[in-house]
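FIELD: query
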Amino acid sequence: MPLERFYQAKRAEVAALRLAAERGSLPAPLATPRPDFAAALSAPARRAPLAVVAEYKRASPSRGVIRADLEAEEVVSQYAAAGAAALSILTEAAYFHGNLDYLRRAAAPGLYPAAPLPLLRKDFIFDSLQVRATAATPASALLLIVRLTPDVAVLRRLREEAESFGMSAVVEVFNAADLRLARESGARVIQVNARDLQTLAVNRAACLALAEAHPPENGEIWVAASGISAPAHLVQAASAGYGAALVGTALMEQARPGAALAALLGGKPAVGGA
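FIELD: result
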């Protein structure tokens, strides 16, 4: 499924945001401080070789429906109790069955044993109005994909806009060419996706090799994403230079995603699929 298909699926959303902007009805950015996403990934790991960003994901193009029976509040509560460093919330509707409101629901203070965890809005974002819409939610970070916005000037502008609202920009790459563009744009948090969104194929070895060949520099925080389902995968990512890992399907396909995360962090056997 070409990345262009995801882009087309978001065009109606952007058009609606543009109309709202013209009418002066865009929701205002939140004025309250947001939990620091980058700091959460940089904090010393409590039980695992690196920080884990646990994902709430109901469906995906490669797997179809994963879990339709678990609401955001339940999963977020389980992840927080199990030791997640941060949370990723899928908000794309057409292919991932997400909703922007999941961010608000995931930020409810009663879901957390202590302070709320930082939330990453995981979606296909390529327009300033999408950044503004994210700023009206409790998100602490948003995802920018280099291949969706390959113009360095645009990528930099979107990152700077996110940061102006107190959010981090997680800039996703797939290979060395993408990494070069991400660094030119000033990216501070770099996510390497082992799944190529053009082909949906997963190549964890290439993900590890990229970090080994082009190590994090100048304080960059690197996140390994896709294909992670076992404690050994966390160890390998940490050894390659990653500071965090994003895990979604391998947790969501289990009966209790929080228990699966606890097993992953505790070094238990693999918890499920990739």
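FIELD: remark
Residues 35-265 form a domain with the TIM Barrel fold (CATH 3.20.20.70).
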